[in-house]
Design brief:
This protein is mainly β. The protein is built from one helix and 28 strands. The relative contact order is 0.16.
Length: about 375
């Protein structure tokens, strides 16, 4: 949006490691769920409590809105000044792997498959919207898409697996535009818009955290909107060919308001967060949840206290999730019905890996990992 701006001995070893990861993730979720609901600055942190531990990137002039958590040791982040950073040692050190000649671009979304393969999206009008892919940890990049339509503005992307993915643009000629890849982001094509409902007047996506387009399973994908009279979530169950739209209770009616981020733990259960990104404006009812794949949305009984731009489910938990924004981090332990503040640090985006490694990123090059 223009306005804002994942031999038998070998098998046994793998299963054992996976079991430890599940146990660690479950323990983290359980520990988070038992934390007191007092503001972070008003309580002393007890040793062993989960908390965000800062990981110095050395990039204080950069705002990092793109984030992809591979595991507890490996994460990719992206942002302003054409920046892409990667860590493979849990954040102890960061390698600047930015594509050459990209200093004028804003990389608002990044999707990594492992420590070597990643796809990054630059946002903006016309040719500013681009996609790059690396297969060697960022040592080299190949530009795989450059938008040539002045009316298009790409905001977010998502991948169903290592091959199939989508990217979305703000409406072009009255409908959201969907870009598709079937080869891991090496090439892209615009999908026909015959199955896309008409956009509302002023409706667009928010390129705030790389989470305005998310997927779950092999074919389901959801698109978050704002800026219009109603904040909506669009759902496709066929990888973006046909879509249905549903209203959410998240406030809209202004270019700065709407749903900014989505997270689905499966094809049925999802969370939406957002509000009004202006610091001087309140954001009541800034979270909602669904249990029917996004056909209907329920407002949170106790929402986050302010605008939130990123959200993620804790791995292997059916009820725990984190939301982040410029004024803090919130936890839900009941699948989005109620939220409580964990800390007041500023983050724009958040993501958790299957092994329980949860990361957050934001302004002034800030990156943190959830520790206990």
């Amino acid at each position: 949006m223009r306005r804002l701006g994942k031999t038998r001995r070998t098998v046994r070893t793998v299963r054992t490691a996976r079991g430890r990861a599940w146990a660690a993730a479950a323990a983290c979720a359980a520990a988070l769920a038992t934390l007191p609901a007092a503001p972070a600055q008003a309580q002393a942190r007890v040793h062993g409590d989960p908390h965000w531990a800062s990981k110095d990137t050395g990039m204080t002039s950069v705002r990092l809105r793109g984030l992809s958590a591979v595991d507890r040791r490996t994460a990719w982040v992206s942002g302003t000044q054409g920046t892409v950073l990667r860590t493979t040692d849990g954040g102890a050190s960061w390698r600047n792997v930015s594509p050459p000649g990209a200093a004028d671009l804003q990389f608002r979304d990044i999707e990594a498959f492992d420590a070597r393969r990643a796809v990054v999206l630059a946002i903006g009008e016309g040719e500013a919207s681009r996609v790059y892919r690396t297969d060697d940890g960022g040592a080299t990049w190949k530009e795989s898409f450059r938008n040539t339509d002045a009316k298009a503005f790409y905001d977010c992307m998502t991948f169903f697996d290592r091959r199939h993915g989508l990217a979305m643009s703000d409406p072009v000629d009255g409908k959201f535009r969907i870009l598709s890849t079937g080869d891991g982001g090496r090439s892209w094509k615009v999908l026909p818009d015959t199955g896309m409902p008409a956009a509302l007047d002023g409706e667009a996506g928010f390129a705030a955290s790389g989470q305005c387009l998310v997927s779950a399973g092999p074919k389901d994908v959801w698109l978050a909107t704002g800026g219009a009279a109603r904040a909506r979530v669009l759902h496709s169950s066929d990888r973006g060919l046909t879509w249905t739209a549903a209203d959410t209770p998240v406030p809209a009616g202004d270019p700065a308001r709407g749903v900014f981020a989505l997270a689905f733990r499966d094809r049925t259960h999802g969370l939406a967060v957002g509000g009004d990104y202006r610091a001087d404006q309140p954001s009541p009812d800034a979270a909602a949840s669904t249990g029917d794949a996004g056909r209907t949305w329920r407002p949170a009984a106790t929402p986050p206290p302010a605008y939130r731009s990123g959200v993620t489910w804790l791995p292997h938990s059916r009820t725990a999730a984190l939301a982040v924004g410029p004024t803090g981090t919130d936890l839900t332990a009941d699948a989005g019905r109620t939220w409580r503040t964990l800390g007041t640090g500023s983050y724009d985006t958040v993501d958790c890996a299957p092994d329980g490694g949860c990361w957050a990123a934001g302004e002034q090059g800030r990156v943190a990992r959830l520790e206990s």
